Amino acid sequence: MKYKKAQDILPKHVLELLQEYVDGEYLYIPLKNNSKKSWGEKSGFKKELSDRNREIYNKYQRGMAISQLIGEYYLTESSIRRIIRSEKSRDN
After folding, report:
1. What angle do CA 45, 49, 54 make, to 5 degrees?
2. pLDDT tens-digit readout, 48-90
3. Per the database record, which ranges form the Mor transcription activator domain (predicted)?
4. Is residue 71 part of a domain?
5. Domain presence at residue 1
6. Global confidence as pTM
């Protein structure tokens, strides 16, 4: 999430009203209900992880050892095993 300066985007009267409640503090403004996105959707990171996990599973199915996957992806053995289990359950 990138911070924006309130004085750059809000009308002066709205800024002054907000300053009565939170003067000089951080304020989180949640998304509207209809515009919420799940984690990683906006940045595309969720898809990248999904693609990587599918790649790990495919390599495992083609015979690559877990120890090799650990070295190639810099993940722990438990992470590799979790990814394989998760991807395997998607296939079923």
Report:
1. 150
2. 999 999 999 999 999 999 999 999 999 999 999 999 999 999 9
3. 43-88
4. yes
5. no
6. 0.59
